[in-house]
Write a structure and sequence with these properties.
With 393 residues, the protein is α+β, with helices and mostly antiparallel strands. 23% of the residues lie in helices and 22% in strands. The protein has three domains: 77 residues, Phosphorylase Kinase, domain 1 (2-Layer Sandwich); 202 residues, Transferase(Phosphotransferase), domain 1; 96 residues, no CATH class. Keywords: ATP-binding, Kinase, Nucleotide-binding, Phosphoprotein, Serine/threonine-protein kinase, Transferase. It holds the Pfam family Pkinase.
């Protein structure tokens, strides 16, 4: 350890203390974790789950272990240095994160978690303090409670900080899955929007009560045998609890974010998406724009050999309340040679060009076009008024 000069203490936990240090050989700043347990034989440390996980997991969004040092029966882990953790970042914020910033952090967390789960480990202690950040780069850290997915129960009841602990763990289930990590991801996602925990329970029972107040009462049949559901029955005996509107609790979150949070924070572990499935959620693809449909007016009307196309046109509203027109035009295979172009069908349609087919009554191979217009009682009316549909001859 003479190679490293300790600069300051970064944190102190149950298993060890973490220091900021300077590597005299390379000139780099590193993080040194000093374990509190004594190791009298070199072979002892090789049995540590944390060390086995860190040596196996190699991913840009998982903290990198540089080396292990044993000196005077003390064990030191030398890590790459990160500027801060996500909790510190949220604590020091004066305004909410943008959804794009949240999407960036969550995408990195899920990529690292997906790699971890695919390599056979689940973390069991995901929380903002264990997510390290430098600039916009996020890395998962602190694998002291990590376990192999293939390992057999019973598992310890105390895993993760209470606010991020999955219901099955709070209900003292002795067997659980990597879905406990996905619950924590959902709680962290909600916290990134509000900058405060969504389930800040003061005890395990209070934790369950706060979850019920937001998600409503669960179906007790979803929990496996050996789960202490009596904890929930004690809460239900007081009153019927309905699910809250999460959009009221997190008003700055998009509907896609709300849907993802509710999926991740599902009472039923089997219904929570895996990390790779969560990455496919619309929340991470809100900027996606469908390939634009072609304008029927740009089609070469003489091209009878074109492949079938589906065209959809929406007309705008008029400027006056009585001209509040909603029009929809649907064309299937607009490639016939005998299409007619009709201009200015209605002043309420703001001069859009409309295509109709003629002479197609007995020719199923040609184009068919439907036109529907609806007159709305006011510009703000949410429902359609009288409507008509006509098919061209």
């Amino acid at each position: 350890m003479e190679r490293y000069k300790i600069l300051e203490e970064l944190g102190d936990g149950t298993c060890g203390s973490v220091y900021k240090a300077w590597d005299k050989q390379t000139g780099e700043i590193v993080a040194v974790k000093k374990l509190k347990r004594k190791f009298y034989f070199w072979q002892e440390h090789t049995k540590l789950r944390e060390l086995r996980a860190l040596r196996k997991l190699n991913h840009p969004n998982i903290i990198k272990l540089n080396e292990v040092v044993r000196e005077n029966n003390e064990l030191f882990f030398i890590f790459e240095y990160m500027d801060c953790n996500l909790y510190q970042l949220m604590r020091d914020r004066k305004s909410s994160f943008s959804e794009e910033e949240i999407r960036n952090f969550m995408s990195q967390l899920l990529h690292g978690l997906n790699h971890m789960h695919r390599d056979g480990y689940f973390h069991r202690d995901l929380k903002p303090e264990n997510l390290l950040v430098t600039n916009d780069l996020l890395k998962i850290a602190d694998f002291g409670l990590a376990r192999e997915v293939s390992s057999m129960g019973p598992y310890t009841e105390y895993v993760s900080t209470r606010w991020y602990r999955a219901p099955e763990v709070l209900l003292q289930s002795s067997s659980y899955t990597p879905a406990v990590d996905m619950w924590a991801v959902g709680a962290i996602l909600a916290e990134l929007f509000t900058l405060s925990p969504i389930f800040p329970g003061k005890s395990e029972i209070d934790q369950l009560c706060k979850i019920c107040n937001i998600l409503g009462m669960p179906d007790l049949t979803i929990f496996p045998e050996g789960t202490n559901t009596s904890r929930l029955l004690g809460i239900f005996s007081y009153e019927e609890i309905s699910a809250a509107n999460l959009s009221d609790i997190i008003p700055n979150a998009s509907s896609e974010a709300i849907d993802l949070i509710l999926g991740l924070c599902s009472w039923d572990p089997s219904k929570r998406p895996a990390a790779d499935e969560a990455l496919q959620h619309p929340f991470f693809h809100v900027g996606w724009v469908p390939y634009p449909l072609r304008d029927p007016l740009e089609l070469k009307l003489s091209n009878t050999g074109a492949k079938p196309n589906l065209e959809l046109n929406l007309w705008g509203f008029g400027h006056e309340p009585e001209d509040c027109f909603l029009g929809l035009t649907l064309a299937v295979k607009p490639s016939a040679s005998n299409l007619e172009v009709l201009h200015n069908v209605s002043q309420g349609m703001m001069g859009e060009d409309i295509l109709f087919c003629s002479g197609l009554k007995d020719d199923s191979d040609q184009s068919v076009k439907f036109s529907q217009s609806s007159l709305l009682p006011s510009p703000f009316a949410p429902s359609l008024g009288q409507s008509t549909m006509s098919q061209s001859d």
